[in-house]
Design goal:
Layout: H1 15-26, H2 31-35, E1 41-44, E2 61-73, E3 80-87, E4 90-96, H3 101-106, E5 113-117, E6 119-122, E7 125-129, E8 132-135, E9 146-149, H4 154-158, H5 163-176, H6 187-192, H7 198-206, H8 211-243, H9 254-263, H10 270-283, E10 290-295, H11 301-314, E11 318-322, H12 326-340, E12 347-350, H13 356-368, E13 373-376, E14 390-395, H14 403-410, E15 418-422, H15 429-435, E16 440-444, E17 455-460, H16 464-476, E18 480-484, H17 493-510, E19 517-520, H18 526-537, E20 543-546, E21 559-564, H19 572-579, E22 590-595, H20 601-612, H21 616-627, H22 635-638, H23 653-669, H24 679-688
Parallel strand pairs: 4-7, 10-15, 10-16, 11-13, 11-14, 12-13, 14-15, 17-22, 18-20, 18-21, 19-20, 21-22
Antiparallel strand pairs: 1-9, 2-3, 2-5, 3-4, 5-8, 6-7
Helix pairs in contact: 7-8, 8-23, 9-11, 10-11, 20-21
The structure holds adenosine-5'-diphosphate and magnesium ion (MG).
């Protein structure tokens, strides 16, 4: 019997209508889907309180009581129903503000009820607002103990799918099952790790009899979930390491050495040195490198990239660097070209707006090998871009690229090139393990010396004039400023008006004082964007008003102020990334987060995180905790998030580490999962990670 093959609509008590809502709202279609729809909290219903024991400090509790003085008062919105609940020890008031019409005819003064809710104090009198109320004798024994509470939506409630109904459906599934739920882990493994059986775990996650068994049930399900993710992704890594040979970079030659001795603009940080060494070892090993380079904004990833490119050139390979936007690609091109042209290295830029003639020359140069370094955007991926002998591909600001696109780079040579993926901002360790577990990781955990930490302030938008005066003072010192507006989607008319109105206000203030301004957004043509950016880089314009098109990469060390309008609308990693545009020079820099007066709790936490730390790794962790993994940039495109049902990457780092160790231990002995005792693993992986893309090509 396959639980995934049993449609929930045929389950007694569900039916077509509810099934449709379950599918639409939660993606639940089968018995299995339903069983893995787990509670988000539990309420202790193992004790029945006496009314005299209650106070307003208690959490949700339940009492056994009769009711009297049932009455409805008020009209319209002010209408409410009240009753007095009493037992032998005392009494308290029950209050309903809505949804009581049905109840008025149901409640019976001779009946004993199990009343459930949170006691609160009103006019110095204890009451319970919107209690749950059930006939005491009729209450399912399942409710006495821990009660599971399931997430529901408005639509579900309208279809009578509240938490209680879900609980009943779960109970019905267990009643209908003729056999135990088939095991998804081998017996020896369950024994070795002292896990509950799947059937027991699933039963107890819905109907826990004690906190101990609930803990065990949760552990089994989380451990299994994370274990399979690790087993799958690490298996890819093992496979790739054996299946593909890599280009061997044997020598550190003239290009690298000459650059290092004569042209390098500053001493490498220790972290940069260590990372370059790691990459060098990897590229010399005979295996193909797949490495993730993590480093905070401004940690100097570009210089590391350049040194690696030189390594490839020294071994007679071509290399390319791919960036997510035209602005960024252009900037990389300029940096690389200015650093390397004296070495006689040929570098070209290829983007969507490269002219046909130039494009053809580039194609020719790549094929005959005269062009050594190609820098560009997605344009690099096109099939017409053919290299003579590419040995290293570097991808900057990784989260903007889809996996399928990256896979294309693999096919640019008959032996796949080494791949170095650089992140825009750090990714929390747990997320890196699940998303990029098949990559080796290098971390730059140190900023270049002499940086002054950026001062981050939060203020309200009605203080805008004060901010303008503050900016003016910095401009007087010769600095420059960014002012960023949220334009989440460039087509949003409403946002666009905000941006334009803001620009006008800024011009009114600053133009008469002799400071030129510029505006940069996605609606401009690439050439216009470029020109605008250039004016700012050359300090012709002192203030750049922009949308998040400047989010990643751009490097203008003279800019010392970053003002972010409607900062509450940005995600944490975006805020951090934007802040990273300043603090690149020797001067004190400022990041000013402007918000409206009223903001949500989550927004407030994001702002507080920003004002309390500059550390990208810390921010990434906070981001994961606040948003949950589903929202983290990159996870959607990666296609690899088999969305987590039970585990939580923000909270379950310890279990993940353990699961990863265990998965590694199994693969070390049996990398292809061919041994008899590992057959369940092999078939589970097939079942869980059905996907059309050939993952072993994914970097
Ligand atoms: P990111 O890691 O965010 O891509 P960049 O590579 O743009 O950072 O580097 C940020 C700035 O730091 C650049 O202006 C770069 O020239 C400078 N930089 C990089 N490495 C060093 C170093 N070792 N010492 C001093 N400055 C450095
Ligand atoms: Mg960068």
């Amino acid at each position: 019997m396959e639980l995934s093959g049993l449609n929930i609509k045929f389950l007694p008590g569900v039916g077509e209508k509810k099934a449709a809502v379950l599918l639409e709202e939660l993606g639940i279609e089968s018995y299995e889907d339903m069983l893995y729809h787990v509670p988000y909290k539990y309420i202790d219903r193992s004790k029945i309180y006496k009314i005299s024991e209650l106070n307003n400090q208690l959490p949700y509790i339940q009492i056994k009581a009769k009711i009297r003085n049932l009455q409805t008062t008020g009209t319209g919105n002010g209408q409410r129903m009240t009753a007095i609940a009493y037992d032998e020890s005392g009494s308290l008031k029950l209050v309903w503000f809505k949804g009581f019409k049905y109840l008025t005819h149901q409640l019976d003064i001779n009946q004993e009820y199990l009343i459930f809710g949170q006691p609160s104090l009103f006019n110095n009198q204890l009451n319970i607002v919107h209690p749950e109320i059930d006939n005491f004798e009729k209450v399912s024994p399942l409710l006495v103990g821990f009660q599971a509470i399931y997430p529901t939506s408005e639509k579900m409630k309208k279809a009578f799918l509240n938490s209680k109904t879900i609980s009943k459906i779960q109970a019905t599934i267990f009643k209908t099952l003729k056999i135990k739920i088939p095991e998804t882990l081998p017996f020896w493994f369950i024994q070795q790790h002292k896990l509950l059986y799947l059937h027991e775990a699933l039963y107890n996650i819905h109907f826990p009899k004690s906190p101990e068994i609930l803990r065990k049930a949760i552990y089994r399900l989380k451990f299994e979930e994370l274990f399979y993710i690790q087993l799958n992704i690490l298996k890819l890594k093992y496979k790739r390491k054996t299946a593909f040979k890599g280009h061997v970079f044997i020598t550190i030659g003239d290009y690298f050495n000459t650059f290092y001795k004569q042209y390098i603009p500053f001493d490498l940080t220790n972290a940069q040195k260590r990372v370059i060494k790691e990459i060098r070892q990897d590229c010399g090993s005979g295996k193909q490198m797949n490495r993730l380079l993590q480093g905070d904004v401004g940690s100097g990833k570009t210089l590391v990239a350049i040194m690696c490119m030189l390594m490839a050139l020294d071994n007679c390979y071509q290399t390319c660097l791919m960036a997510p936007t035209e602005i960024l690609a252009t900037q990389h091109y300029e940096t690389v070209n200015s650093m390397l042209h004296e070495l006689g290295i040929s570098v070209a830029l290829l983007t969507g707006s490269t002219r046909k003639k130039e494009r053809e020359a580039i194609h020719q140069g790549l094929q005959d090998g005269s062009l050594q370094i190609l820098i560009g955007t997605h344009a690099l991926l096109e099939d017409v871009v053919i290299f003579k002998n590419i040995g290293l591909v570097i991808i900057d600001e990784q989260h903007r690229f889809g996996v399928a696109q990256r896979a294309k780079l693999w096919q640019k040579n008959n032996i796949p090139p080494h791949i170095l993926v650089m992140t825009a901002t750090p990714i929390p360790r747990t997320l890196a393990m699940t998303l990029y577990g098949d990559l080796d990781v290098s971390v730059i955990d140190e900023l270049p010396p002499g940086r002054k930490p950026i001062t981050t302030l939060h203020t309200y938008d009605r203080k805008r004039q004060d901010i303008f005066r503050f900016i003016e003072k910095e401009l007087e010192k010769g600095r420059q400023a960014y002012i960023v507006y949220p334009l989440i989607s460039e087509s949003e008319k409403f946002d666009f008006r905000d941006l334009e109105a803001g620009f006008e206000q800024i011009n009114n203030y600053f133009l008469p004082k002799g400071y030129k301004t510029g505006i940069l957004h996605g609606k401009l043509k690439p050439a216009e964007k470029d020109a605008e950016m250039r004016r700012f880089v050359n300090a012709e314009t002192k203030i750049l008003v922009a949308t998040t098109v400047i989010e990643v990469g751009v490097n203008v060390p003279n800019a010392s102020i970053m003002v972010i309008e409607s900062a509450e609308r940005f995600g944490l990693s975006q805020l951090h990334q934007l802040r990273g545009r300043v603090g690149r020079g020797a001067d004190q820099s400022y990041c000013i987060l402007m918000t409206s007066y009223k903001i949500s709790n989550d927004s407030r936490k994001r702002i507080e995180t920003m004002t309390s730390t500059n550390d990208g790794f810390e921010i990434a962790e906070a981001d994961l905790k606040l948003r949950g993994p589903g929202d983290i940039e990159g996870t959607q495109q990666s296609g690899l998030t088999c969305s987590l049902k039970v585990a939580n990457l923000g909270k379950d780092a310890i279990i993940l580490n353990e699961a990863s160790l265990v998965a590694n231990r199994i693969l070390e002995k049996d990398p292809n999962l061919q041994n008899e005792e590992n057959q369940i693993f092999a078939s589970q992986i097939k079942r869980l990670f059905k996907t059309k893309i050939t993952w072993h090509y994914i970097s």
